[in-house]
Please model this.
Amino acid sequence: MKIVNSLLLATVAIAMVACGSGKKQHSTLSLAGAGGTFPLPYYTLAFKTYLDSNNVNVTYGGIGSGGGIRSLKDQVVDFGASDAFLSDKEMATMSPVIHIPTCMGAVVLAYNLPQVKNLKLTGDIIADIYLGKITKWNDPKIKAINAGTVFPNKKIIPVYRSDGSGTTYIFSDFMSKVSPEWKNSIGTGKSLKWSVGMASKGNPGVAGTIMQTDGAFGYVGSEYAFAQKIAYAQIKNALGEFVVPNTESISKAALGDMPADTRCMITNSSAPGAYPISCFTWILIYKEQYYKNRTMQQAQGTVNLIHWMLGPEAQGMTEKVNYVPLPAKVIANAEAQLAEVTYKGRLLTVGSKAKSAALTK
Amino acid sequence: MRILSIKDILFKRLLFVAALLILLICAGIVYTLVSGSYGTFVRFGFFHFITSTAWNPTIGHENYGALSFIVGTLLTAFVALLLCLPFSLPVALFTGEYFRGKKIASIISSVINLLAGIPSIVYGLWGFYTLRPIMNHLGWGQQGFGLLTSAIVLAIMIIPYASSLSSEFISMVPKDLKESAYSLGATRLEVIKNVTFPVAGMGIFASYVLALGRALGETMAVTMLIGNTNNLPTSITSTGNTMASIIANQFGEADGLKLSSLIALGLLLFLITAIINFIGKMIMKKFAA
Model:
């Protein structure tokens, strides 16, 4: 009995200490978001910095893009996050939602051929590999666009994702745009029906299998590939240029034609020098910020946070965690949308005006 | 006296509530699985779902069937059981019969029990970085991935379950029985064959049913080694997928019919495990009688 009592005491003591330390970090405002795991490392860094500098506590749950959209629909979060924009059909079932791109990424085609330093690929060749039509690295089609490179007579081992993933979605979206055969037989989706190759779980799984397997080939999220020492291919873009995926070329993909609400896939971009398998990731908020008894403070805080995410401090952080910052044109686009956000029908103030408004209060 | 009886009643009630709670939780799990998989069974029909090898998640062509995963699950689990037999049985005899009570036996049994405490992800890592290159070198499986590779790792994982329990049962065989056999001039091998195994047989069998149950549900290590191809395996070295593995892989971004099909797979896995346990109990009853 004595032991039980002392254990109880200890538990209570720990709980009290925990509560005490929790109070110390008390901040004026806390916001909650949920969504895709793709931007999670960037958001974690950005929100931590935001807490330090602005004393606003932002929690983010990496529960998958689908979950993020569901949470916003159920109105249990201040913002949702998604790697895929809402379709017109989805938009129709919710009150007006605006899409704010926060950073960019890409999907790279990684391979394991130690003797090949530079590899150029086209959408057609990638399709043929995944459809089982090209099975050897020294296939004439590969040799034809890689003049001067000696290819070994090795089997190509295609690798794909075993789990449902936005990476698969972006990759298959590009492939469906450039290869009618891919579109008809494999299609676009977060998980697909593959005919050849083998599957691994997550970016680390696919990258690990490729690095471990001689002659392997597969698609990996750029944020993971850039952090690893893994070889990846140059891909032919819509203008016929072979482009290496890097910050500059991925950023250029956002310079093509785009609707004002940024709801579009930027794969196979028509902009010069653009890497063709690039993507945005979005934060989704309601245009009318008054729902579920949210306060004016929460609404203004959400807008301030997003404005900060579009600013130079947050955008400068993207590259630290291997993401790509937004080009100025897209930021202007996003700011224009943010300016239309309302609370109980009245426009919210954005940026420097917001700060002075808060001060006068 | 009266106080004691109140305590007694209270204790009885408490036990009853605890037991009932377990039953309710179990019923709740079954209810969730059945209601979640309802959509799939309505769309495809129960028998079509368990006999179809289709798995096409592309929107517009959605078609799901469980056969590939049922075959993959049963194949890896039973091959693992077969592979673990030549290791777990000698170990059980070693620790339970030949060196019972000796220091070497306790060392070996604690090492074997240590195997049971290793998280499955660690087995997966070992399989991925050590076993797979060996399998690849031998030309088994696709680049070393496949049903056989996962079955080997599974076999190692279930050895402690099979051996430690059978060792207990072997050491529990009455001394009188064995000694009377020795007095009749039986050799040690003959004693094991004619006394130990018949007496401890049911217990040994039960420990293998437990080990099989563990192999059926193992997820992480299998996912890392089986190749995760959603097709009917054509041979023991080909790649495939198990029910637990595809659920773990796909539930995150799944919704609608796909989510329902994954839950249906969970229900089937639950049923298969229940059926195997039931068959095990029937066999035990038959032989014990």
Chain B has one domain: 67-288. The CA atoms of residues 68 and 232 of chain B lie 4 Å apart. The mean pLDDT of chain B is 91. The two ends of chain B are 44 Å apart (CA to CA).
